Amino acid sequence: MTEKPLILVTNDDGISAPGIRTLISIMNTIGNVVVVAPDSPQSGMGHAITLDSTLYSERVYIDDGPQIEYSCSGTPADCVKLAIRELLDRKPDICVSGINHGSNSSINVIYSGTMSAAIEAGIEGIPAIGFSLLDYTWNANFEPSETYVKKITEQVLNNGLPNGIILNVNIPNILKKAIKGIKICRQAKANWVEEFDKRKSPQGKDYYWLTGKFVNLDGGEDTDEWALEQDYISVVPTQFDLTAHQFIKNLNTWNLND
Amino acid sequence: MTEKPLILVTNDDGISAPGIRTLISIMNTIGNVVVVAPDSPQSGMGHAITLDSTLYSERVYIDDGPQIEYSCSGTPADCVKLAIRELLDRKPDICVSGINHGSNSSINVIYSGTMSAAIEAGIEGIPAIGFSLLDYTWNANFEPSETYVKKITEQVLNNGLPNGIILNVNIPNILKKAIKGIKICRQAKANWVEEFDKRKSPQGKDYYWLTGKFVNLDGGEDTDEWALEQDYISVVPTQFDLTAHQFIKNLNTWNLND
């Protein structure tokens, strides 16, 4: 690549979140950066898209870096669609999403706006990576992530990714010197055991807050949860072909057409 | 099974949509039905969950059938979580979602609230099916679907489904006598080419409507798109382990730890 790569940056915590500001500053050292990110937090939005209402987008100036930035009223997936079809002059060479405030490992990938943005770029044939730090607080320390985020992004730019594959990168919330390295992993089998906090409104109406405990059901030592517990950065190659190919043969024995 | 199965019914078009009313009436012939469905349309919500606001749910009475019904202010995935953790006395024997007004074949599975509800049940270890009719209109004719929806549901109750696998069933919008049967398929490679309709608000602010054309990029004769075009009902076994297992070996050659 003789000219600098065009890098699309997005996230789900909103355009002013420290995580995306860190990601933008790292990407400015690699290529030409265009940011299209939600104007408000969109955590837990999954792969939602805006079908029944309108989208706003405007040029914004948040710091004095060289990047071009747009905020968007839509979901993370909307941001990527709008960037590719409307705001960018050409297809970006890579899309990076994050750095998310909080884990998107194991089953969290399903609920993640950060990963849905990366997956949306992947659907469009753009190499894409979602980055997440295991600290959901606004004041999370992203500094230990920086060299790893840069290295993984450069490797994807150099090696490319096969069509239909996106990287899901999670970073443990520990000091940089404690990070043991990077592990390629599979998504752990895990789930959330929800506990609904039932309350009564001042008007006497019942309502709920969704809370829950994360439960890792997977004892494997090749999973993202295992790697993160062992102080590694986890990288899971992730796909949007959801077909359970291995079960097609079995289903054909059901004789659904009898 | 000596006693009648407990069937959880949900959807993404909202509890009063004709599609879910049809599904409820079919399920009433099979088991004891509890409905927990959104109080308003949630199409395109993907696997969104409600993290930053409250959830309301209330018992509702929409027709004189034997089912028990709750509406919920949340997303389809929220409805399933609330049903399992809070509203049902025991784990349901099956969860059926739909019948969706419109296709959830190929890449649409990613954006689908209907399928995210079924997948959420699958994550909880409940056999689950998402049903969709290829007609997005409110007045869609669900009558041709009925015997097929019943048969597939009964087969899942009889055979069970392996942990981690959900069925994505799509039904062509044709007369019942024109339906050739049921095909087990893989998810076609397809995408949406968006066209943003840019307009100006009365206040002079630019805004967009998301519109687009569906493009099937897959010439295979084993895909859901192919089956539907050939007047078959498509059944895709769908999973929420998004790991691209086949790419792990290749990624390990990248030497990310050098």
UniProtKB/TrEMBL annotation, chains A, B:
Major subcellular site: cytoplasm
Residue intervals of the Survival protein SurE-like phosphatase/nucleotidase domain: 7-193
GO CC annotation, single: cytoplasm
Cellular localization per UniProt: Cytoplasm
EC number: 3.1.3.5
Root EC class: hydrolase
Transmembrane segment boundaries: none
Classification via Gene3D superfamilies: Survival protein SurE-like phosphatase/nucleotidase (3.40.1210.10)
Signal peptide: none
Cofactor binding summary note: Binds 1 divalent metal cation per subunit.
Molecular function GO terms recorded: 5'-nucleotidase activity; metal ion binding; nucleotide binding
Cofactor: a divalent metal cation; Mg(2+)
Keyword Metal-binding appears in the UniProt entry: yes
Pfam families tied to this protein: SurE
Catalytically driven reaction(s): a ribonucleoside 5'-phosphate + H2O = a ribonucleoside + phosphate
Binding site for a divalent metal cation: 12-13, 43, 100
Cited InterPro entries: SurE, SurE-like_Pase/nucleotidase, SurE-like_sf
Keywords: Cytoplasm, Hydrolase, Metal-binding, Nucleotide-binding
NCBIfam families: PRK00346.1-4, PRK00346.2-2, surE
Function, as annotated: Nucleotidase that shows phosphatase activity on nucleoside 5'-monophosphates.
Family (UniProt): Belongs to the SurE nucleotidase family.
Protein name: 5'-nucleotidase SurE
Organism, as annotated: Flavivirga eckloniae
